Amino acid sequence: QKGFMIAFNDSSASSPSGHLRFPSGQILITPNAMSQLTPSEVLNALKCHLTGDWGDCCPEDRQANDQALESGGRVFSVYHSEDQHKFWIITEAGHTLTTVLMPEDY
Fold it and tell me: Within 13 Å of residue 48, how many CA atoms lie on the same side as its CB?
């Protein structure tokens, strides 16, 4: 599979669920995630993540994410591909780097 790149303009990007709630910083995807996920799955999940839809996170992680939006802390979301592969999106504290990865890549 060929690589793909995803870019957002933090100042103007929005999705049907609203405006971006925090900056993504640089966006990376692990080789393993790139081989298992389609570009549209990654793009849709990134839009959800950046607009505050945390996917399939547990209630504790949802609460931690909501607090991280106030403090600039780490944000963690869980999604599933069309073929039910679980994958994560993590934006590091300071919101300078967002990584798309499979759980086994962590």
Answer: 20
Residue 32 C-beta-side C-alpha neighbours within 13 Å: 11
Exposure b/e, 37-66, CB count within 10 A at least 16 = b: beeebbeebbbbbbbbbbbebeeebeebbe
Contact 96, 25 (CB under 8 A): yes
Residue-wise pLDDT for 40-59, tens only, equals 999 999 999 999 999 999 99
Cα–Cα distance measured from residue 98 to residue 86, given in angstroms and rounded to the nearest whole number: 17
The rounded distance, in Å, linking the Cα atoms of 81 and 98 is 18
Task: For residue 33, name the pLDDT band (cuts at 50, 70, 90).
Answer: very high
Would you say the C-alpha torsion 28, 72, 20, 52 has a positive or negative sign?
A: positive
